[in-house]
Design brief:
Elements lengths: L1 E6 L2 E6 L2 H9 L1 H17 L10 H4 L8 H5 L3 H14 L1 H14 L5 E4 L3 H4 L3 H19 L12 H15 L1 E5 L15 E4 L15 E2 L2 E3 L5 E7 L15 E5 L9 E5 L17 H23 L2 E4 L39 E4 L9 H16 L3 H5 L6 H41 L11 H7 L2 E4 L8 H13 L5 H9 L3 H17 L36
Antiparallel strand pairs: 1-2, 3-13, 4-5, 4-10, 6-7, 7-8, 8-9, 11-12
Helix pairs in contact: 1-2, 5-6, 10-11
Length: 545
């Protein structure tokens, strides 16, 4: 029998099979339920993962809701557990340190790249403007005076910002103005931990206020509600909580707050810790490792138990010279060549935990591979263990470097560039950087603000091959010397050039300049240079062997 139904513009049908017909003959009501269930499956679609009738997915509750509904309720617990892992679990600490070291390292350095065509500057004028602007930037960014707390310089703040995003999910950077002696710039950077940003007076989340972030009807941030003290501070536990509401933008459109987090869903108000998907596996792996270590320690101690019928043990024994016991010594220890007398009914038993466990390392490595996939870190990079071939190790490093480079670009665009733009506004307003038309025309402002952020270069397994490949790219005009310098050493070719000229001049003055090398003559079959001949040879003729 065939059953048909129409759902909107869609026609669906279900046909009974032999089992259905047998069940209908024995129990018609049950047969009707089977047909209804099959209709539901057909209407729902063809994805097994969406089925609500299969045994495998029947007890799989999936939370519904937008980004804030899913994230905000769990965020405090995720933060606390993420921090606990970074305090106590070596694998978690290693993963985070690997990311921070490769993304930031010794810092992301400004390389001004203005649009020379829009600004109508000659090469010499543009080079001079970029060099002067970089000097002014380093005057602001390099000393710890750029920090409101006068503690961290710019590079340290880059590292702290990234580490906060990884550990807590997000971080807020305020940019207040405070003029201090010793620095011509009043702009300062103030890091605010994510715990301090919450709804003022603890009011409930709404469509425009969630997680301390107040937004307009378009979803753009308007104000941030910041606690004047950390909610976990030991000094303010009994004090009344007070908030400071900071506008996201000033009257001129200047950004007052940078909310740094990785956006995973539209409408997301707060960020999620980097370790969130692997918190449980990391914790369980830490417990398993601790248990195995304890078992190995016990196995190394060779513990001995005395079994007796009365449960008294060695207490009736008299201390002997061989055991080295004393009248007041209640402990009996193993000793070389010792002779111990046991009472009637007592016997010795030893504990053998069977450690070390031979399956420990393969199991841990299998779990770490899954954790590495979630964290976008190849297994070899995650555990710092390169035992495969050169090609496999290089492939792992290249795959990891794609992730590091994407995070570096993200940090440069969402933190470094935003700080640079706010600083440039003040530098131009003070007249320390000359930029005609900067405030009058948005196109000119964008042209002045062009910049690259250069970080440490990736590691090289075989530097000779890497340099040869760079030379080949330059030969084929696939790259520039500046790009290859940044990629191989993380340096700045334009900054290196004056030093190279100076070194060449000094070597020449000292008589140590290398002599120009003569062109190599073609080799003959014996490996020696070919003998010169008076008559020119025909290129079509093969050389003599």
């Amino acid at each position: 029998m065939k059953y048909e139904a129409r759902i909107g513009s869609r026609s669906v049908s279900v046909e009974e099979n032999l089992v259905d017909r047998v069940i209908r003959y024995l129990d018609p009501a049950r047969a009707n339920r089977r047909v209804a269930a099959r209709f539901s499956a057909v209407v729902a679609g063809g994805y097994i993962g969406a089925s609500t009738t299969r045994r495998q997915t029947l007890s799989w509750p999936a939370q519904k809701g937008d980004a804030d509904a899913v994230i905000l309720s769990d965020l405090p617990t995720l933060r606390e557990r993420s921090r606990d892992l970074l305090r106590n679990e070596p694998l978690a600490v290693g993963a985070v340190n690997t990311v921070v070291t490769n993304v930031v390292g010794t810092g992301l350095t400004l390389k001004s790249q203005i649009d020379r065509d829009v600004l109508k500057l000659t090469e010499e004028q543009a080079d001079a403007w970029e060099a002067q602007t970089e000097r002014e930037w380093h005057l602001f960014f390099d000393p710890p005076e750029c920090d409101l707390a006068r503690t961290l310089n710019g590079v340290a703040q880059q590292e702290l910002a990234l580490r906060q995003v990884i550990e807590n999910g997000d971080v807020f950077i305020l940019m207040p103005n405070l003029v201090r002696p010793g620095s011509p710039y009043g702009m300062k950077l103030q890091m605010v931990e994510g715990d301090r940003v919450c709804n003022k007076d603890g009011v409930q989340d709404t469509a425009t206020l969630a997680g301390g972030v107040e937004r307009d009807s378009y979803g753009a941030p308007v104000r941030y509600h910041i606690l004047d003290q950390h909610p976990g501070s030991a000094y303010y536990r009994n004090a009344s909580r007070t908030w400071t509401v900071v506008p996201a933008f000033g009257k001129t459109g200047r950004r007052n707050v940078i909310h740094l987090f990785k956006t995973l869903r539209p409408g997301q108000s707060r960020g999620v810790p980097y370790l969130a998907p692997v918190i449980e596996p990391l914790k369980q792996l830490g417990r398993y490792t601790e248990a195995e270590i304890m078992a190995a320690v016990i196995a190394g101690m060779f513990t001995v138990f005395v079994k007796s019928e009365g449960g008294v043990g060695l207490s009736p024994m008299e201390p002997t010279v061989e055991t080295g016991g004393k009248d007041t010594d209640d402990d009996f220890k193993l000793a070389s060549g010792a002779i111990l007398n046991l009472a009637k009914g007592e016997e010795i038993q030893t504990a053998n935990p069977g450690r070390p466990n031979q399956a420990f390392d393969p199991f841990v490595m299998a779990v770490l591979r899954q954790i590495g996939v979630a964290l976008e870190l190849p297994f070899e990079v995650l555990v710092k263990h390169f035992t495969a071939s050169y090609s496999a190790a290089r492939a792992a490093l290249l795959e990891a470097w794609r992730f590091f480079r994407s995070r570096r670009e993200w940090l440069a665009a969402n933190f470094c560039q935003m700080v640079y733009e706010n600083w440039m506004d003040e530098a131009v307003a003070l007249g320390r950087v000359k930029a005609p038309g900067y405030f009058a025309d948005p196109l000119l402002r964008k042209a002045y603000l062009g910049a690259d952020w250069i970080g440490p270069a990736p590691g090289q397994i075989d530097p000779v091959k890497e340099v040869e490949a760079a030379g080949k790219r330059l030969e084929l005009r696939l790259s520039t010397v500046a790009e290859e310098t940044a990629a191989l050493t993380g340096g700045d070719f334009e900054r290196n050039l004056p030093q190279m000229r100076k070194e060449q001049r000094m070597l020449k003055e000292a008589g140590l300049a290398p002599e120009p090398s003569a062109p190599k003559a073609p080799a003959n079959g014996s490996g020696m240079p070919a003998k010169p001949t008076d008559a020119p040879q025909n290129e079509d003729q093969p050389e003599e062997s």
